[in-house]
Amino acid sequence: MGPVDPPWNPKVVPGDFAKRAEPGTAPAFRDRLVLERIRRHIGSGMSLLEVACGPALLKDEFGDRFETVAGVDLTLDLTAHRRRNGVATIGLTGSDELPYASGTFDAVVCRLSLRHLADPAVLVGEAARVLRPGGVAVVVDIVTSDDPEAAALHNALESLRDPRHVRALTESAILALVNDAGLRIETTERWTQTVRFEDWAETSELSEPLQVIMRKLALLGVDTGMHLRIEEGALMLDQPWLLVAADRPAIA
Ligand SMILES: C[S@@+](CC[C@H](N)C(=O)[O-])C[C@H]1O[C@@H](n2cnc3c(N)ncnc32)[C@H](O)[C@@H]1O
């Protein structure tokens, strides 16, 4: 049998995200390096939109650079934090549209969300539509290996860690999504974030069996797309990140 082709967990529903609707503490969300990379590209202006914004942490981070910062998310359960940050509830599936006119925003950010979407093209397409000509879209996410076997293993492990994980995409798949949405890619940046297993699996109900499996994979040197290894007794992994900054070309 060849590698299993995700999507894993295609039945993610809004309530699944509500449990962790308050600002996340996981390293991926608070990583200053990631925030700085986004900051360099979005500039400043009148209006910023974060799509699939969760608790709208980016509003806390970039609220001082834009007149308005809007957020939309699938999750129906608005916590106090979300209400404060003015998150609008909207799930993007199929033919849904964001509740904004075309060309509304100076900048649109999509962080750590593509991998939770059964149809990420809808989200990226809508992000591109509501961006003004000349505006900047920034997509930031974990990426997976170009090797299908390693990608399948990577996605399986992510899915066990977080049942809401659908599919981490390869770099080329993300670039294709951005291109197909009519955006012009200006920059791509790749880097890895080294994380201790305990931080990566922080909120997982399966962290103990996952650690047993992943230690064994590390000892066997199996390619999981995350470079699993044991350093001074601690299980470590490298999360591969990609940032794509693109603009919406002016209509000729
Ligand atoms: C891991 S969180 C990322 C939150 C935020 N972008 C950040 O980086 O802090 C993923 C978010 O995607 C949202 N989401 C999942 N599927 C969605 C959909 N179809 N439409 C809109 N939002 C969706 C979830 O509700 C969740 O808040």
Structure description:
By secondary structure, this protein is α/β, with parallel strands linked by helices. It has a single domain (14-194, 238-247), classed as 3-Layer(aba) Sandwich (Rossmann fold), CATH 3.40.50.150. It is 33% helix and 28% strand. It contains ten helices and nine strands. The chain has helices spanning 14-18, 27-30, 32-42, 57-62, 80-84, 120-129, 148-161, 171-180, 197-200, 207-220; strands at residues 45-51, 66-73, 87-89, 105-111, 131-144, 169-170, 184-196, 229-231, 234-247. Strands 1, 2, 3, 4, 5, 6, 7, 8 and 9 form a nine-stranded mixed beta sheet that branches. The longest helix is centred in the middle third of the chain and has 14 residues, at 148-161. The radius of gyration is 18 Å and the shape is elongated. The N and C termini lie far apart (50 Å).
Protein traits:
single chain, 252 residues, alpha/beta, Rossmann fold, 33% helix
How is this structure best summarized?
This protein has 252 residues and is α/β, with parallel strands linked by helices.
Distance between the termini: 50 Å
Please report which band the strand proportion falls in: under 5%, 5-15%, 15-25%, 25-35%, 35-45% or over 45%.
Answer: 25-35%
Shape, per Cα inertia axes: elongated
Main structural class: alpha/beta
Query: Largest sheet at a glance?
Result: 9 strands, mixed
* Bound ligands, named by name, code or SMILES: S-adenosylmethionine
Low-pLDDT runs of 5+ residues are 1-11
Number of helices: 10
> Do you know the CATH topology?
Rossmann fold
Q: Mind telling me the C-alpha Rg?
A: 18 Å
CATH architecture: 3-Layer(aba) Sandwich
CATH class category label: Alpha Beta
Q: What is the total domain count?
A: 1
Order of helices and strands, N to C? HHHEHEHEEHEHEHEHHEE
Task: Classify the helix fraction into a percent range.
Answer: 25-40%
Summarize model confidence as the mean pLDDT. 84
Total DSSP E strands: 9
**CATH homologous superfamily label:** Vaccinia Virus protein VP39
